[in-house]
């Protein structure tokens, strides 16, 4: 998965689309109308401005919105490299959340003032995407997502990831880190208010999924300040900063920590003693107020397709059956005698499939990436300039995290992308899955796609950093299937690993809809996953709990992959011997991430142009 794209947590960018506000709940708590930001008047002025061309008004709208997003959500600015915001956190107070919800509407009059027909084709696409995001953002305000401000995958504990991504080269960089450390207690206080509001209204994450959160918080705040992941930058300060400044900055960070530590400890105690015991026992989104409509909205947003949960569930069952047949074929090639469950048990437990130390595991991932890189020129005409590296998931969050994730880099901030792998419990990290995982998270998957989009300088920033999960995750799953063309999966166990990963995403279609729409229990979901996959027990439990707290997101992968595969099949059928895989991939990636319905329409046009070309 793409971590900074995917995580809807206090530590990550919450664009207007992600602010599914506190709805009526917050309106009832905050009676007074919130003061509007200074940006409000600038949107109003832009809507009323005379003498502007439609294109100029549109691009000014994009500029204003980009400024708004990065100023109001400074964590986003850190990840994208937008300057001047690294000393603050997003304001998650109730008045600020309500103000943000109101200010989403500021874009509507500007959009109405623009005659779409007068725009050039590329601007028309940008207009359509921007308007779509605004409309979805307004529609999502029916649902009180902000009240569930802490999960095992998001919350104030993940502020550490933002600090780890901050520039740490200059005196000013370290002053910014100190300022953010000082701001953590306020974020925690605002989080407590949201959690209390949700507890009163019965809008909480499921109790079972919160079991690891207090330990996550405790791991951030050991007795020694400089042993905390929050202060890690102060343990490796560059020599270019004078020793006296290094000492003063470190002392300031330690003083800030004296306020941060008790705030985290108090939040952990609150969660253990009050919040978790009071959290709901049900696991389905549909069990919440207006839950069926909420889940349907999740599904539309995450898949960018007009499919019902029932249709997706049926599609998942078909995909599980199809992939299972391919897996059985590989088992026969290997010559294993026994049932599928026997084979899966062997893959989960045989010591030959596991490394015994984390350094060897990480080194093996790096070796796979180095093997893939030279072959990319055979499949892509354009490759990104931004580099990437292989790192590890922080130990404090690893038990609740997936097998790996991609943390995007930033050309503007000069930060490479990171393929972060999980080294917690090496007996849950089999060798046979490593090639498929590298193809997904690094290249030709997330890093290649996201870095290329960031480098599309002719597009407005909101498109360069667009986070349509169905496109991003669909591309990364499709990228796994390119392995044979890159020299991967030559070992039958590795081929079975690739099929296991495809099965994993097909299982998601069944389990996600099963839990949130059809009333499946957590145990039933785990049992279904176990029966149809060779994934380890650690991964299976972590994954099911992920689907429970992030409804609909797991549907993005197969939705996108199947769309891209269908587009490729159509192109191959129409173009025959003239089909060029490099041109096809460049066309899919050449306009940044797109909703799947938009991608399909534009690729059909591309196929028509290619078919009509005199080449």
Question: What proportion of the residues form beta strands (DSSP E)?
Answer: under 5%
| Secondary structure category | mainly alpha
Number of helices in the DSSP assignment = 26
Total E-strand runs: 3
Largest sheet: 3 strands, mixed
Q: Could you tell me how far the N terminus lies from the C terminus, measured between alpha carbons in angstroms? A: 38 Å
Note the run of SSEs as H and E.
HHHHHHHHHHHHHHHHEEEHHHHHHHHHH
User: Quick one: overall form?
Assistant: globular
Helix content: 55-70%
Rg, Cα atoms, Å: 24 Å
Q: Enumerate the spans where pLDDT stays under 50 for 5 or more consecutive residues.
A: 2-33
Arithmetic mean pLDDT: 93
Spatial ordering of strands, largest sheet: 1-3-2
Structure explained in plain terms:
Helices cover 58% and strands 2% of the residues. Mean pLDDT is 93; it is low at 2-33. The protein has helices spanning 3-6, 23-29, 38-48, 54-72, 74-80, 94-103, 107-112, 121-140, 159-165, 171-201, 213-220, 243-278, 291-303, 309-334, 340-349, 358-372, 434-441, 446-454, 461-464, 469-480, 492-516, 522-532, 537-549, 556-575, 581-589, 596-612, and strands at 388-392, 404-407, 417-421. The protein has a three-stranded mixed sheet.
Topology, element by element:
Blueprint: H1 3-6, H2 23-29, H3 38-48, H4 54-72, H5 74-80, H6 94-103, H7 107-112, H8 121-140, H9 159-165, H10 171-201, H11 213-220, H12 243-278, H13 291-303, H14 309-334, H15 340-349, H16 358-372, E1 388-392, E2 404-407, E3 417-421, H17 434-441, H18 446-454, H19 461-464, H20 469-480, H21 492-516, H22 522-532, H23 537-549, H24 556-575, H25 581-589, H26 596-612
Parallel strand pairs: 1-3
Antiparallel strand pairs: 2-3
Helix pairs in contact: 2-6, 3-4, 4-5, 10-12, 11-12, 14-21, 16-17, 17-20, 17-21, 20-24, 21-22, 22-23, 24-26
């Amino acid at each position: 998965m793409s971590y900074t794209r995917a995580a809807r947590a206090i530590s990550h960018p919450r664009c207007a689309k992600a602010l599914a506000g506190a709805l009526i709940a917050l309106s009832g708590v905050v009676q007074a109308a919130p003061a509007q930001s200074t940006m409000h008047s600038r949107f109003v002025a832009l809507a009323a401005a005379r003498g502007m061309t439609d294109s100029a008004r549109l691009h000014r709208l994009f500029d204003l919105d980009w400024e708004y997003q990065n100023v109001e959500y400074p964590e986003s600015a850190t990840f994208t490299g937008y300057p001047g915001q690294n000393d603050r956190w997003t304001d998650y107070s109730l008045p600020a959340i309500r103000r943000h919800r109101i200010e989403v509407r500021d874009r509507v009059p500007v959009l109405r003032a623009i005659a779409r027909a007068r725009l050039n084709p590329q601007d028309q696409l940008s207009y359509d995407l921007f308007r779509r995001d605004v409309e979805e953002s307004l529609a999502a305000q029916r649902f009180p997502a902000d009240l569930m401000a802490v999960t095992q995958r998001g919350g104030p504990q993940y502020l550490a990831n933002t600090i780890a991504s901050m520039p740490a080269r200059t005196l000013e960089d370290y002053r910014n880190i100190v300022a953010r450390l000082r701001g953590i207690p306020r974020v925690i206080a605002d989080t407590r208010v949201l959690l209390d509001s949700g507890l009163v209204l019965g809008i909480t994450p499921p109790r079972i999924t919160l079991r690891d959160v207090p330990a996550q918080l405790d791991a951030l705040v050991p007795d020694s300040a400089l042993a905390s992941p929050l202060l890690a930058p102060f343990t490796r300060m560059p020599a270019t900063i004078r020793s006296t400044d290094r000492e003063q900055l470190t002392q300031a960070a330690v003083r800030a920590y004296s306020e941060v530590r008790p705030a985290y400890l108090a939040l952990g105690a609150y969660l253990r003693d009050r919040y978790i015991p009071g959290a709901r026992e049900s696991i389905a989104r549909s069990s919440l107020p207006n839950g069926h409509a909420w889940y349907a909205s999740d599904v539309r947003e995450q898949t960018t397709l007009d499919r019902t949960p029932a249709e997706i569930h049926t599609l998942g069952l078909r995909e599980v059956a199809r992939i299972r047949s391919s897996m059985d074929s590989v088992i026969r090639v290997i010559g294993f005698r026994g049932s599928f469950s026997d084979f899966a048990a062997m893959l989960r437990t045989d010591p030959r499939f596991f490394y015994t130390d984390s350094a060897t595991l990480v080194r093996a991932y790096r070796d796979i990436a180095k093997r893939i890189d030279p072959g990319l020129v055979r499949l892509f005409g354009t490759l990104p300039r931004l580099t990437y590296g292989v790192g590890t998931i922080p130990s404090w969050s690893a038990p609740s995290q997936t097998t790996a994730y991609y943390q995007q880099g930033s050309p503007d901030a000069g930060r490479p992308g990171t393929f972060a792998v999980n080294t917690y419990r090496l007996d849950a990290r089999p060798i046979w899955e490593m090639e498929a995982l590298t193809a997904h998270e690094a290249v030709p998957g997330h890093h290649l796609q996201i870095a290329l989009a960031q480098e599309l300088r002719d597009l407005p920033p909101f498109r360069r950093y667009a986070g349509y999960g169905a496109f991003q995750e669909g591309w990364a799953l499709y990228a796994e299937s390119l392995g044979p063309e890159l020299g991967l999966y030559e070992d039958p166990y590795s081929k079975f690993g690739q099929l296991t990963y495809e099965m994993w995403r097909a299982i998601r279609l069944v389990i996600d809809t099963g839990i949130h729409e059809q009333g499946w229990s957590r145990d039933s979901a785990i049992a279904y996953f176990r029966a149809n996959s060779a994934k380890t027990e650690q991964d299976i439990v972590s994954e099911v709990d992920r689907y429970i707290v992030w409804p609909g997101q797991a549907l993005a992968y197969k939705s996108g992959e199947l769309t891209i595969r269908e587009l490729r099949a159509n192109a191959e059928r129409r173009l025959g011997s003239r089909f060029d895989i490099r041109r096809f991939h460049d066309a899919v990636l050449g306009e940044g991430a797109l909703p799947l319905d938009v991608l399909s329409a534009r690729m059909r046009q591309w196929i028509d142009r290619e078919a009509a070309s005199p080449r």
